[in-house]
Amino acid sequence: MSPRQWLPLIGITICVFIFNMSEFMPIGLLTDIAADFSVSESTAGMIISIYAWAVAILSLPIMLLLRKMEYRRMLLMCVGLFAFFQILSGISNSYWMLVISRLGVAVAHSIFWSIASPLAVRVVTPELQKLAISMVAAGTSIAMIAGLPLGRIIGLALGWRMSFVTIAVVSILALMLLVAVFPKVENPGTFTLGRLPGLFRIKVLVGIYVVVAVFVTGYYTGYSYIEPFMMQIAGLSESMTTIALTVFGLAGIIGSAAFTKCYDRSRFGFIILALGGMCACLFLLRASAAMVVTVMAVCALWGFFATMFNVSFQNEAIRASPSDATAIAMSMFSGIYNVGIAMGSLIGGAVTETASVGLIGYIGGVFTLIAVVFTVSYLIRHMKENDERRKARLEGM
User: Fold this and answer.
1) DSSP 289
2) Closest CA to 308 of 339, 279, 338, 277
3) How many alpha carbons fall within 13 Å on the CB side of residue 238?
């Protein structure tokens, strides 16, 4: 891969890291944020839900509004907005000021995650597209390894506000890199609002959206409250909780590598393993809390399967989308993913408040089990039919 391909891809990967770090970081700082603003942990956790709902609602309208904008300009604009609102988060002196700043970050997020994966595959040659998607996933995993724990460490040492300020500084540096190395990427701008209903007639794409909505709800029912679970149920110290989150992210990098090496050999088996593995991790979460070694093992497997799910479903969404509608299709993917995050955070908060944080794995597991059944009975069948039609078209040429 030439520097003309590597450098833009590295720039996108750095942005993936900081956007994910920003999204995940409040999960590791809920206790401190709640104490600072004198609110409950579930109220503090609402910033995760509000952020996710904003992304869910704004992703498609914003991308329709910007559908003719050249992609390089769009990328630079959203990273600039992201940096500004991170600074605002860092100087927030009230809960509602933090909420407003997070809404601003959500606007940037709505743009970025609609174009990140499509741009990653556009700046490399076709044979390197799987690697490009894996690097996007690696940015997410590194955010979990270094980003989320680092944000937590900074928050514990200097206060949670400095965690957001640190992200702002890194995002400004990333913006400078993108200005220097990212090429102009033409946007065909041929997608119109009238074609939007046509995307919902693509059975595979609709199936992907259904699985993402249900599965991510289950995923985040558990993950949104993993910090209090580790400390209250598993009895881990703050430092051990940070290590557990690091293990989660480190396993994600292995999941990303597995995608690059194994996905094309057995797409459907890979997808089923990702979904089924996550489902098993959630159901085993409460039992694993009995010993440090078992809870660490479940965290490792959880991170591994979570990344497998993310990269495989992003890849399938791009594969199922018309070429000039990829950004629009991915904006819906991002929006629906964030509906799942919001619903999972709300459900996890309700379980924590009304019952026990120890039950989050069981409740989340039910949702992921539904997603597994739907994938096996509906989605994979239509994916196979699409593959057969594509093969027949190629043979007929």
Assistant:
1) T
2) 277
3) 12
